[in-house]
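ok so i was messing around last nite and threw this chain in just to see what happens. nothing serious, just curious
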Amino acid sequence: MKGYVIYLSTEQEVDFRGNNYGYWTGKTYRHDDVVYPGYEDDKDDESVKVYKLKISAEKMSHKLGERCTYVRSSVVEEVEN
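result:
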C-alpha cells in the first residue's frame, strides 16, 4: 500500500545535499520561541509520519512552512508501506 511522507529543508530549494531536516515525524518542538519539526533521516523509520492521501501531505507540508521557524521548503514523496 502506498503512502506519502514529507521531507523538510532549511534551504529555499530542496536539494538533498544542503541544510535539510529530514522526514517529518508528525511532531513539533518549541524552544525560546523557535519552533522545530521532529524529523528522521530515514524515510523508512517507523517514527516518520505517513499520510494515506497525497493532498493531506501537501497541505501539512504547506502548514509546516508557516509553523516551523527555519523550514523554507519541503517535498512530498511517495513510499510503499
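not much to say yet. The radius of gyration is 12 Å.
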